[in-house]
Amino acid sequence: MRVVALAGGVGGAKLAAGLQEALPAGELAVVVNTADDFELWGLYISPDLDTVMYTLAGIANPETGWGIRGDTFSTLEMLGRYGEDTWFLLGDRDMATHVLRTARFRQGRTPTEVAADLAGALGIPGRLLPMCDERVSTVVKTPEGTLEFQEYFVRRGQRDEVLAVNFRGIEEARPTAAVREALAAAELIVLCPSNPVVSIGPILQVPGMREALAAARAPKVAVSPIVGGRALKGPADRMMLSLGHEPSARGVARLYRGLVEGMVIDRTDGDERGDIEGLGMEVLTTDAVMRDAEDRVRLAREVLRFGEGLRG
Questions:
Q1: In sequence order, which residues have a C-beta less than 8 Å from that of residue 254 and are 6 or more positions away?
Q2: Do residues 28 and 127 lie in contact, with contact meaning Cβ atoms separated by under 8 Å?
Q3: What is the CATH number of the domain that holds 263?
Q4: How many domains is the chain partitioned into structurally?
Q5: How far does the signal peptide extend, from start to end residue (predicted)?
Q6: Residues 261-276: pLDDT tens digits?
Q7: Alpha-carbon gap, residue 35 to 9, rounded angstroms
């Protein structure tokens, strides 16, 4: 079964890894948010893309979900000795990814081409696809002013109330040919349990993306990142609340109304099933928490079976 997953962040990366394990080699394409990309020390950094890439390659740090397992931080320590503010943790091996990506960009390669090079070098059997090749940047409006996303998310530890989220440059972005082709050929499209506002949100806001999804014949299934009213990781619940959305599986379903035919929610939220069905979605209630690699594969297989059923 040819599957396209939309993902960003640790939760999305986990399910993408489960799908990769559950599917025949080469059957998975992952479209990843790149609106949290930024530059630091002259290097172009793609946090969501790299989190997904390292997870699919089996080298992600299992304790944090981001970065590389067993990485060291000698370069960062030296930068600190030089007086630099080392608020964004970059490991030594992780740094190699950013050095090479930046060099390839300066040679005129596109983000799609560079992602394919890096994923191939790490032995990832499927396709890792940036949502677009244009530069898009998430900016967050807070009571303290407008912040670049990594300033809000990492440097300030997500402590600010989010009043609005905008994606600078999104108007000029377009789905790449690789993304359009993957969606058109897909037999199932999965919206992973990523933050619906700042991970899945920017993917869907790329002009032409919703149209490409609507044109795809494959059923679309979303997995809720909210369990029992709380985000399993990150600020999705607080962000949804401050932006006027209910922080619940039902609230996530409302954001995806008209886009997906199926919704996967945790058993904890089983009492929301009827409301979600009222939005015109089929609902799968299961254990949606991925505690380890076995859980990732189990949930992925359940999502695949659910999607198969929606195909009729």
A1: 245, 246, 279
A2: yes
A3: 3.40.50.10680
A4: 1
A5: none
A6: 999 999 999 999 999 9
A7: 12
